[in-house]
Amino acid sequence: MRGSDRRTVVVLCLLALVALAATGLAGGSTIARNGYSLAVEGSVDTPSVTRSFDGVTYEVDATARVDPGLVCVTAETPTDGAYRVYAYNNRQQILTQQRAEGNGTLRIDLRDADAGSYVLSLTDDGVHQVVHPVLVRGYEVDASVPDRAPAGGRVNATVETRHLRGAGAAAVTVLVANDSATRERTLTASGPDTYAGRLPTARLAPGNYTVYATVRGSDRAFGERELLGFRAAGDLRLTRHTGTASAPATPDTQSTRNDVLLPSTDESGTTATETPTRAPAGTLVVVLLAGLAYRLARRRE
């Protein structure tokens, strides 16, 4: 890319970020690996998860949320050599690509992209060095969740959606996650474009979590149900349960992003345990003495 062209791209991307800030889509979380990195406009930080793409495993901790158009991408490489940034659709087919050299800003053409899940890959010498998930929004999503709740109970959640483009929703979910556990709950329709549900937290340890509201389609993309919309709904702090009848929640470190919880067997998510009662020592002495006196009285008869 020539110097004048690169300056034009940078200016256009800055203008795009100003416009995105007005819509709440601005951002640019970076995913890095082996000295390579990709930062995409509209990115939202997500819990770090392992994803496999084209036979290679990557750590992913951000997802870009964009509308169809030219998407600004900042690429960094350990050398000044040439590389390519590819955009793959949900069938892992190449939608578009762009060649660049050294660190810089590119514009990836997603103007004709349907709503759904995509992956950007920075490829050097034919090897995928770093990948970045991208969602082309099919739905606008808003959510209402509490910022604090006792661990072991249930969290009420309400999600409102607005269809923007493309396929219809197959499921609306609420996902609670941090770096050690992730749980997801499918909500039920409670009105036009409104969904509600109660998320059990019995298997989540006390601590800080982020709540995400997602709209998922019927197709699968990159190993999970395709995203059509999502929003980071806010932070949730699960506090320790102070009751004496319930056992503390056991940390669930084996959860996956696609793990949909089944309803708990009771409202609290915990089970009360009966404990045998031990009589005071003085009571036992009185009972033994009373029994001995009764036996002596019978002998005298």
Automatic annotation (TrEMBL):
Task: Identify the stretch(es) annotated as Disordered.
Answer: 241-276
Q: At the top level of its lineage, which domain of life is listed? A: Archaea
Biased composition (Low complexity) is annotated at 264-276
Q: Where is the composition biased (Polar residues)?
A: 241-258
> What protein name does the entry list?
Uncharacterized protein
